[in-house]
Amino acid sequence: MSLKHAILILLESQPGSGYDLVKRFNSGLGWFWNAKHQQVYQELKKLSEAGWLSFEEQAQDSRPDKKNYRLTPAGHAELQRWLADPVQPVRTNDALLVKLYGGNHTSLDNLREELQRHRQLHAKALDSLLEIERSYLALPAEQRGAWRLPYLTLRRGILGEQAWLAWAEEVQQALAE
Length: 177
What we know:
Blueprint: H1 3-13, H2 18-27, H3 37-49, E1 53-58, E2 66-71, H4 73-84, H5 95-101, H6 108-137, H7 141-144, H8 148-176
Antiparallel strand pairs: 1-2
């Protein structure tokens, strides 16, 4: 997957400006696809040049004109092509796992501190995801249907964080021995 397909997904759901897309990334896709502000704007330019997006400019008084993007028929066709193609499982590059693997070359205190720092980050992420889940579950049933598939991605995130924290507990116990 690439950033361009994530942008196409977001714009297929709802047209918007670069600023709107960054906000949507931060509140949804950002949990499992990382994109920086500048990357989104650069990709919007490329997608427009490729003919996959069109935009309308909206004048603003105190800022540069705002561009509101939407998919073109060619952009929709590319999105449909990509959605039909199989994707490869993600391989993880995790520096903490490399440190743990080579842990015999450092102190146990160093490993414990690093693990504790990561546990705090994962616990905070889990709390945030659970808060989003509570908001989803509080929606009336007729509104939940529209969010069913994003909710399933949320559940994957929750289960992933819970599994990571359970694994970290095992590691902590092993390092205490």
